[in-house]
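Posted in: Protein Modeling Q&A

I'm a second-year student putting together a small comparison for a lab meeting, and my supervisor asked me to include a predicted structure for ATP-binding cassette domain-containing protein. I've never done this before, so apologies if this is the wrong subforum. The sequence is pasted below exactly as I got it from our records. If anyone can share the structure token output, I'd also love a short note on what stands out.
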Amino acid sequence: MRTLQVSGLTKNYGEKKALDDVSFQINQGEIVGLIGKNGAGKTTLLNCIAGNIFPDAGSICFENKDLLVNCEIRKEFGILIQPSFLDYMNTYDNLRLLQNAVGIWDKKLIRKQSDEVLKIVGLEGKGKTFVKSFSFGMKQRLGFAQALLNGYKFMILDEPFVGLDINGRAMVKEYIKKIVKEKQIGVIFSDHNLDEVRSLCERVIVIKDGKKIYDKGLEEDGQYEIGVESVNQGLIQAMAGIPGVEIDTEKSSLAFNNNTDLHQVIAAIVPHARIVFVKSSENDLENMLKGE
Ligand SMILES: Nc1ncnc2c1ncn2[C@@H]1O[C@H](COP(=O)(O)OP(=O)(O)OP(=O)(O)O)[C@@H](O)[C@H]1O
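Accepted answer (user: helix_wrangler)
Welcome! Here is the predicted structure, written out as tokens:
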């Protein structure tokens, strides 16, 4: 299993604790969004995983191998963190350097792979253009192309949508979903916008002041639980007509998420059982981010 395991990650910059005992796991085929306000520690965390920063404590393992020792594993990671290019080289040459770094020297293969990723990111025909003439958004697209080139096993993307227009954002999202499905790689990406994150992933990690304060699947957000005095046959039959409602007879409760209409469920319960409580974790995440 290609699992990324981050344990007890801590990084200080002098007195400043940029990361404080952060632990989580990302499985293959999983896209995880990393959210937090400015200065929360997102880039530091991604840089530690990418090997650009050495943590003060903790471990990062991939496929059960310690990444802090086996650095070469990262050659097969697609990384987009503050993309940097050699401005005096053209697009092809910038991509070629990365391919050479992972041991690809075959010129035909290099050109084929480069043309493929340039097409994906909408820079088709720009292979011979010097990078210094690129706009910020075009550089961001090229940065994503670089990440795609080496993203065989895992992808680390720091604010991949910054500077991209609507088409660019849609392209990045579509392609991330596609490769995750096809190659079953894991992806962690950071962003400030919860809607953007929701549209791409199923799980969100929130960090605040270097600490992980939230780590849940988005489907767990917006859950309802209704307690009843007792679960009877009439209630079971009534709930059978409403998709998404799970009945726990032992706890005398019903659980469903916000895809199911709360009022419809309550109306269906009332003729059969007395409601004891209604609990909602609706939009925990949204509330938490507002409260930051
Ligand atoms: N090289 C550094 N030297 C000193 N402090 C640093 C350094 N890099 C980051 N920091 C501090 O560490 C904390 C975390 O920074 P980081 O860049 O990881 O946050 P972030 O969540 O990525 O922020 P943003 O959303 O603004 O990009 C911040 O307080 C920042 O000022």
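A couple of things worth pointing out for your meeting: The chain has two domains: 4-219, 221-290. Residues 13, 16, 18, 36, 38-44 surround adenosine-5'-triphosphate (CB under 6 Å).
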